[in-house]
Amino acid sequence: xxxxxxxxxxxxxxxxxxxxxxxxxxxRWSDDDVYGHLNNARYFDLIDTAVNAHLHEATGTDIRxxxxxxxxxxxxxxxxxxxxxPRPIELGLAVERLGTxxxxxxxxxxxxxxxxxxxxASAEGRFVHVYVDNTDPARPPxxxxxxxxxxxxxxxx
Length: 157
Fold this sequence. Notes:
By secondary structure, the protein is of the alpha+beta class.
């Protein structure tokens, strides 16, 4: 997303076409906070799960055991509309940037009818993985493993 000339962040709500892979998450009674909407901590759990579940499924391997692993360097969320129990949440996944040792993901969270209120994201997360050497206790940055690169390349927008 770009920033307008005023220097304020672009608050444009992405639509479903901005994402390449999809999964559905269920909501639970305990996901809602005292205000009756999805607690902000749950958004981050969903964002993390969308990325790592995709990597696990697309690679067919336990990504935690690779010689290079992705560690979270940054995560953020922009909120556009309330979500909550008991409706499912659809998670759209895209890659904004695929670098040498890092990947920047965008995860759209959608709730509701895709032709109606759920056509636009209720929230969008930004999730940055930096790959580090899993065999070195100092964990220096290292190139993204080819199995991961192959799994995320189709998600680049």
